[in-house]
Amino acid sequence: KNPVAQAASLLEKLLFLVHVRPLPAGSREEPPPAPGYYDTSCFKRGDLLEVPRTLFVHFGIYLGENRVAHLMPDILPAVTGDRRQIQQVVTNKRLILGVITKTASIRVDTVEDFAYGGSILVNHMDRLFEDQVLGSEEAARRAEKLVGATAYSLLWNNCEHFVTYCRYGAPVSFQTDKFCETVKMIIRDQRSVLASMLVGLASIVCLGLAPSTTLPTIFIPFFLWMAG
């Protein structure tokens, strides 16, 4: 199996925790902001909304009338067809089980439930796509057609893939790209450490134990590892 894919799969299981909303001490679930917390008059149907989190950004497509379509990990659509239960705000338990089982739903929530108190950026990604921006109505219709249960992967099918498909015509995740590049860099660094160790050991075997061979064998891999 590809070492990049193996490392990515392992780190994906760990990093999904950044999507879990932190809960205040002594509280089971943090209540969302009250309706009207956000001024939606500046939003237009088809707008791409971003909410920066600690390490990741959550994305959605504004549908008008204080409604946002967004993709969220959620176990409930896989175990029940009760729309009333599914439409309730996704709890941490539902979110975690959704990530573990790789199930999600593209759902429609209020702006308050979508942003959960975070600041909102509007169409911030348009500058990266320039002439690829679809019409606002087209973006909103694409989002509405996809509402419902779907597969989930933090790296390969997340909320950013959803919104870039809707607004720009192709599913892309810059967060995923950046994450994979980091994984590749770590793997390359580890290979450098291993290669340095092997060269050092070969020099010891060929030239014998001496400060000129032993010290580089110890310190060069150590400093490469620390730099990685």
From TrEMBL:
InterPro entries for this protein: LRAT, LRAT_dom
PANTHER family: LECITHIN RETINOL ACYLTRANSFERASE (PTHR46678:SF1)
UniProt catalytic activity: 1,2-didodecanoyl-sn-glycero-3-phosphocholine + all-trans-retinol--[retinol-binding protein] = 2-dodecanoyl-sn-glycero-3-phosphocholine + all-trans-retinyl dodecanoate + apo--[retinol-binding protein]; all-trans-retinol--[retinol-binding protein] + 1,2-dihexadecanoyl-sn-glycero-3-phosphocholine = apo--[retinol-binding protein] + all-trans-retinyl hexadecanoate + 2-hexadecanoyl-sn-glycero-3-phosphocholine; 1,2-diheptanoyl-sn-glycero-3-phosphocholine + all-trans-retinol--[retinol-binding protein] = all-trans-retinyl heptanoate + 2-heptanoyl-sn-glycero-3-phosphocholine + apo--[retinol-binding protein]; 1,2-dihexadecanoyl-sn-glycero-3-phosphocholine + all-trans-retinol = all-trans-retinyl hexadecanoate + 2-hexadecanoyl-sn-glycero-3-phosphocholine
Keyword Hydrolase in annotation: no
UniProt keyword Transmembrane, yes or no: yes
Gene name tied to this protein: Lrat
Family statement: Belongs to the H-rev107 family.
Record function comment: Transfers the acyl group from the sn-1 position of phosphatidylcholine to all-trans retinol, producing all-trans retinyl esters. Retinyl esters are storage forms of vitamin A. LRAT plays a critical role in vision. It provides the all-trans retinyl ester substrates for the isomerohydrolase which processes the esters into 11-cis-retinol in the retinal pigment epithelium; due to a membrane-associated alcohol dehydrogenase, 11 cis-retinol is oxidized and converted into 11-cis-retinaldehyde which is the chromophore for rhodopsin and the cone photopigments.
A Gene Ontology cellular-component term: rough endoplasmic reticulum
Source organism (scientific name): Psilopogon haemacephalus (coppersmith barbet)
Transmembrane segments: 193-226
Name of one Pfam family that matches: LRAT
Membrane topology: Single-pass membrane protein
Catalytic residues of the enzyme: 159
UniProt protein name: Lecithin retinol acyltransferase
